[in-house]
């Protein structure tokens, strides 16, 4: 049976989001009032054909992951996100699961920090959203590598210049933070699976997990060897969005420094690259 209510809601919400708010070029000639289907697909990480089928009611059973990604791309409020889950025939995530809803306020914050690399992570360290400058700085991650703990234990970022001491400290902080999250969200199957896989695949993670430490990953100073603009030594601060348990990872350079100049150059290169992809 065609799910026309779901399709109508998606079209309405898509028309409401200006392309500039999603970091996309407006273009000289646009027939769409808001996002094009292709742009929504790009932001949600799904195919444009699937968006068409959803809007036409020919795809009737999207997964919870797809619905969550669409809610983020469409910048839905909490109530609208709940409604989208129900239109898709799904039960909205309960209080025992890691919150993954990005509030409109957090979206607006990222809009205003276009010149600063910022990414949004959930409490399990899954990257939910990143502005173009963050992606230009750190790279575009896919699959399991979108989880910061997975990357740090199983597929290290070759752009980040680590010392043994800094790497050990970061890994210990991530494990302690994940343990705290596991205690707060006992019903999250994805979190349980992540921890089980890391314990099985990474002896270092398993060793740290057995230590029983509980804590949080807050801040660090990192040197990133970027292939286009060279090394950048930046402050990395992790901020928590009140009431949502989302973490905002923010990279900043000292004003007037060489790093600030190279970060500004990277902003130009990243913007050009985004325009070419769009």
From TrEMBL:
| PROSITE patterns, alphabetized | HTH_CROC1 (PS50943)
- A Pfam family recorded for this sequence: MLTR_LBD
Species: Amycolatopsis rifamycinica
PANTHER family, alphabetized: BLL4672 PROTEIN, BLL4672 PROTEIN-RELATED
Query: GO MF terms on file?
Result: DNA binding
Instruction: Give the matching Gene3D superfamilies.
Output: 3.30.450.180, lambda repressor-like DNA-binding domains
| InterPro entries registered for this protein in UniProt | Cro/C1-type_HTH, Lambda_DNA-bd_dom_sf, MLTR_LBD
HTH cro/C1-type domain boundaries: 28-81
**Which residue spans adopt a coiled-coil conformation according to this UniProt entry?**
none
Q: What is the lineage of its organism?
A: Bacteria, Bacillati, Actinomycetota, Actinomycetes, Pseudonocardiales
The entry's protein name is XRE family transcriptional regulator
């Amino acid at each position: 049976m065609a799910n026309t209510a779901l399709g109508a809601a998606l079209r309405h919400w898509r028309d409401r989001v200006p392309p500039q708010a999603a970091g996309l070029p407006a273009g000289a000639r646009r027939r769409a009032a808001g996002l094009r289907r292709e742009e929504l697909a790009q932001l949600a990480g799904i195919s444009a054909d699937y968006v068409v089928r959803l809007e036409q009611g020919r795809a009737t059973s999207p997964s919870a992951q797809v619905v969550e990604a669409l809610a983020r791309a469409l910048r839905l409020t909490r109530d609208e996100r709940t409604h989208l889950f129900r239109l898709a025939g799904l039960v909205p995530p309960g209080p025992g699961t890691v919150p993954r809803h990005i509030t409109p306020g957090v979206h607006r914050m990222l809009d205003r920090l276009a010149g600063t690399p910022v990414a949004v992570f959930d409490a399990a360290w899954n990257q939910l959203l990143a502005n173009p400058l963050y992606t230009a700085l750190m790279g575009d991650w896919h699959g399991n590598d979108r989880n910061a703990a997975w990357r740090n234990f199983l597929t290290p970022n070759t752009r980040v210049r680590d010392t043994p001491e800094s790497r050990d400290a970061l890994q210990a902080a991530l494990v302690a933070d994940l343990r705290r999250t596991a205690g707060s969200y006992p019903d999250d199957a994805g979190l349980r699976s992540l921890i089980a896989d890391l314990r099985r695949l990474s002896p270092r993670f398993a060793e740290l997990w057995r230590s029983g430490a509980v804590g949080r990953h807050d801040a660090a100073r990192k040197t990133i060897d970027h292939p286009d603009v060279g090394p950048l030594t930046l402050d990395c601060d992790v901020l928590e969005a009140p009431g949502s348990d989302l973490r905002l990872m923010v990279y900043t350079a000292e004003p007037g420094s060489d790093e600030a100049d190279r970060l500004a150059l990277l902003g130009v290169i990243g913007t050009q690259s985004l325009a070419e992809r769009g």
